[in-house]
Write the structure tokens for this entry.
Amino acid sequence: MQETKDIIVDAVITWVDGNDPVHKAKMANYIENKSSLNNKSVRMRYDQVNEIEFAVKSILKNAKFVRNIFIVTDNQTPEFLKDTEKAEKEFPNVFVIDHKTIFEGHHQYLPTFNSMSIESLLYKIPSLSECFVYLNDDFFLTRETSKSDFFIDGKPIIRGEWTSFYEDIWYKKLQLLIYNLIGKNEKVNAFGFKKSQQLIVKKLGFKKYVRLDHTFTSLRKSTFNTYYQENKKMLDSNIKYRFRNSNQYVPQSLAAHLEIKNNTFVLKNDYQLVYFQNYKKPFFWIKYKLRKALKSDNKLFLCMQSLDQCPEEKLSFIKKWLSNKYN
């Protein structure tokens, strides 16, 4: 393993502009229930309010050690990069990577509208560093970080806690029983972030799992490469779905537990995260949480999930807050 100071670190962000009519039309060709295109549960996974600009700026400001930032998308360009002359001057180390590039050899699965499929192939980004951090477009760094917040001597820091599988938790077993009794098969078979973490960890032979959260993830390219060279069917099984499927696993959880198996990890039982999901709460609550993100030295990460669902007045306040912090 390399010393921490010698490690090269890149950042990878997945992004989609679900408001784009071309993207919507493309999705309509493959989605079975066309009317669901405008459902809240669908839109919140694809719509955006240009928060990716602040995600990138938060890295540039608070993770100066990052060499390159790769934005992985489907034939789209974020608004702040569309002026190529300005982008080359202000963001010389930010690069847009098309799905076709990472799906080389797997083009039969394109187009895809599935983050699990895309995340499974991020390690194939050309020139990607061995050690990289992965984030969604609604993740932000709240304060200055160093390489050692993500990697220690080449070992990725895994943030999470050892947690029981659902079948070992009494109230989850009861919930599943009730769903089966009342015939709510859609609840039983629905995709779930935690369920999909557990799925792959069981396949790796663990009795519990380290539960990941919605935050920056430290990954190593060789971990994916080695595993998928030996388990090609496992890769195909995860990238073949154009939309999320309950049979899919979370690639970050696969990587984390492979590192645990190989004892090439550092476990931190603290997500160091301020997390937003519900914007229906009072204005003072939002302001309180944002102050918490700024004041707490221990909080490094901010996730503002589904900002497109935020009421206009609160969204205006949040975007002004992000602009003041990162511009």
